[in-house]
Amino acid sequence: MHDCESRRPADAVRRTEMGGSTVSITFAGHTLETHSYNTVVVGTGAAGFNAADALHNLGQHDVAIVTEGLNMGTSRNTGSDKQTYYKLTTSGGQSDSIWDMAQSLFAGGSMHGDVSLVEAAMSAQGFYNLVRIGVPFPHNKYGEYVGYKTDHDPRQRASSIGPLTSRRMVEQLQKQTEAKGIPILDGLQVIAILTDPDKERALGLLALNKRKQGDPEHCYVLISCTNIVYATGGPAGLYNRSVYPPSQNGATGIALEAGALGQNLTESQFGLASLKFRWNLSGTYQQVLPRYVSTDADGQDPREFLQDWFADPGAMLDAVFLKGYQWPFDPRKTMQYGSSLVDILVYHETMMKDRRVFLDFRANPTWQGQELDFAWLGEESHGYLANSKALFGTPIERLQHMNQPAIDLYRDNGIDLTKEPLEIAVCAQHNNGGLLGNSWWESNLKHFFPVGEVNGSHGVYRPGGSALNSGQVGSARAAQFIAARYTEEPMETAALLEAAGEQVRAKLNMGQQFLARASSGGSGPQPLRRSDTSGDGHDMVTWEVGELRRRIADTMDQFGGCIRSADGIDDAIKDLWSLLAQLSVKMKLAGSAELGRAFQNYDRLVAAITYLAAIRDYVQQGGGSRGSYLVAQHDGELPLDSLPEAFRHRLDDGTMKTSVQQIRFSQHGCEVEWVPVRPIPQEDQWFEEVWQAYREDRVIR
Ligand SMILES: Cc1cc2nc3c(=O)[nH]c(=O)nc-3n(C[C@H](O)[C@H](O)[C@H](O)COP(=O)(O)OP(=O)(O)OC[C@H]3O[C@@H](n4cnc5c(N)ncnc54)[C@H](O)[C@@H]3O)c2cc1C
Hints:
Among the domains are: about 270-430, no CATH class; about 515-675, Up-down Bundle (Methane Monooxygenase Hydroxylase, Chain G, domain 1), CATH 1.20.58. By secondary structure, the chain is α+β, with helices and mostly antiparallel strands. Strands 1, 2, 3, 4, 7, 8, 9, 10 and 20 form a nine-stranded mixed sheet that branches. The protein has a five-stranded antiparallel sheet with strand order 13-12-18-15-14. A four-stranded antiparallel sheet has the order 19-11-26-27. Helix 1 runs parallel beside helix 13 and helix 15 (about 545-560) runs parallel beside helix 18 (about 595-620). The structure holds flavin-adenine dinucleotide. Flavin-adenine dinucleotide binds near residues 45, 250 and 429.
């Protein structure tokens, strides 16, 4: 049996009064605070809050929310020019239907039909729930919630409340959960998903209490729960060049470690974004035609590099203009001076020539020494600027005229576009793939429901704004299933440790090993330094925590970014495996305050290995360029003859979009399987039949 004994804690975690019970136990030399709930929701983004709220509405009140930081995550801390929410058409006479919307989602490729149908069927419900709780989506005087057309959208299904749609969603959803008294265990970083020994069913969670990191024997929390709704967001920490907010880390790696399958991990989205303050450079930022300048690493030798590549100034300026609403990098738009050629050229400067790229709004672009002439512009860009009465002045003057809030946003974040150029790169923004879920958002790991961005429900292309729709639908759907089917009490702690004690012990040991190499007394990260610290005569190179995460992210930028190839990826994966194997001896913490970041590095390594294994497999299968990435192929074409061979590619011929790539991580390697896309179900819609099935409780299955 386990070395486990129970006693009441002196300092019970706050807010556990709603149905949860708290005791402390000793296990493997640690005092573990324990909790138990029917369902624990991990994450306080738009998806997590909605799951908790929906569960409560459906009568399951034994719920708690666990988060590493209440105010962290993408939903609360990001936005864009016009942050979009995609939904079923809710205005006007234009025809739309659940079936039509499901087809739009499905048409993106590599997306299962039943999931597409659910995302469409529950779209209006999710949207009107947000309206009801106070998210101010605009409507006209007849109550129609009008929409606009977003990318990959054949209708006008998109809505927005401005740049910060997801932040307002989170704020309003949080109020709902607070009004219901749903406890939030804040500052708990989940470090393990506990399962049965066969990794078939989730049983609970192990978390690090970040407030107690300085007290290694009392800093862990063990939670027994019947269900986990996993709303930990996208794997933001995987890339250095990233437009995810810095407060979002992601926790996909520990779910893969627990046996949850990943799917479509290849399908990340990339686009141009600013680095100092992370923000997508879409919309007016491009439509005002800023000057693109590159410099050397020290900011010297400024050059307007775009003009070296375009045939004439009109083609160059039109491509920049189109970036405004063709924001994500798209390999279909790289030839014939398409807008994604701009991403390629920025990538070429930054990733291949080690230069830095800036958007300068203070001066107009030039062409061979000549100042901008609006007559150079094509019909579309000229017409747009003419209609906006913006055929004048400098980019910053046009921006002031067309969209002053776009300037204010940067000023509020310490960047004055009237005085300084804006450093940019091609950045990771979103992962269409993620963890596998069925049409109730349940993973292959039973009782584990990945919802929101961590769930990889989307395929290759998705309509802009469908991520937020999917988050609301998936979280509500998981709640429905749990409230109907998984209502049983969680395991007793002793039984949990009987089943998953080895997993707990392994993580506690990992923590101890991390701390064994921590500098004493330090409480924060130290400057970047690589050191020989073995002290035993061996050449033992160690990495500080921050250095190691930059190294993982450098590898992802290079091999998992928007330009991919078979060259070097094997070695990159091997290198990550070797880092993982030696992590606890090679990572040097600056102090115990870095324990959480050290566990995150473990998570990132597992995720990076799995993501790169997925990419390698796709390339080996002969997969071409698609979605938001280019795959270098010798038998392809170059967007411009003068570009390096790394950009020679051919578009995917569409054959691979009829299947979904699934991947399983294990300590022995990653296993990949391609499964055929499930079609959109066409079931009997006869009311009496459905009603009977519903009355007989045959629906939620
Ligand atoms: C710049 C940008 C613009 C975007 N624009 C759009 C758009 O216009 N339309 C659209 O549909 N989508 C857009 N997206 C995507 C969309 O914003 C996200 O997919 C969505 O907000 C994710 O919500 P979420 O609830 O799944 O996760 P998040 O909001 O990221 O929340 C994750 C939560 O999990 C917590 N967490 C993570 N790991 C742990 C752990 N180990 N332990 C405990 N807690 C943990 C985090 O602290 C956080 O609270 C955009 C994304 C970016 C970056």
